[in-house]
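User: I'm writing a tutorial on reading structure tokens. Could you give me a worked example: one chain, its sequence, then its tokens, then a sentence or two explaining what the tokens reveal?
Assistant: Sure. Here is the example chain.
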Amino acid sequence: MKGFKKISGALSVVLLSVAFAASATYLVAPEDERVDIAEMVVASEDDSQERQIDWDALPPEVIAWVEVPGTSIDEPIVQATLDAPNAYLHMDALGQGAYGTPYIDCECTLETPFVMIYGHHMSDGSVFADFASFVDEAYALGHQKIFLYQRDGETLELRVLAVDVVNASRERLITDQTYDLNSMAEKADLRFNQTSTTSQLFAFATCSYQTDNSRTVVYASEFPDSGVQ
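And here are its predicted structure tokens:
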């Protein structure tokens, strides 16, 4: 199949994030080691108004911000680089701490057709921990909206398209920028009957507990107004 493929046998594939695949599934970071940058994001008191982010107060490495209403997912996103593809596993958006920050895979960007974003599953339920709960269909249906705010001022309103669980001990995540949305959805563990009109697909990956080394991947894309609340 084209696109985001799940392939057994590590010897036959190009690994995009070996360190992420081998990292601990459950990370603990003392609260006093974390740098809180949430104060740089201003939520509007009026739901009809778009959320405001003080981009000037954030380091230039932060190129986007992801928010999933009704969950604890409310995080900065940085871009990994080819010379340091896994630096943000243990470095926050301000270059400090040890708990990392969500990051775009070094072989993807916000402009590529396929955008892979990794984030830790923290012990206190923060960062991308709630993405692991999307394996529950009722939970996923109740949290289908994902907002991606970009530094250039554009805001993408995404909808969850599919959810897949990968055993990182036997499978690896690879990307093909000529993906096919339909073939990807057919292979996922949980699929929603929606038809995307976009040419871009996002995947949010975090650790989960179906096996000792599982990853939950939530696929999302822009959709026309579908009435999803």
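What the tokens reveal: Residues 1-33, 43-48 have pLDDT under 50 and may be disordered. Residues 181-187 form the longest helix (7 residues).
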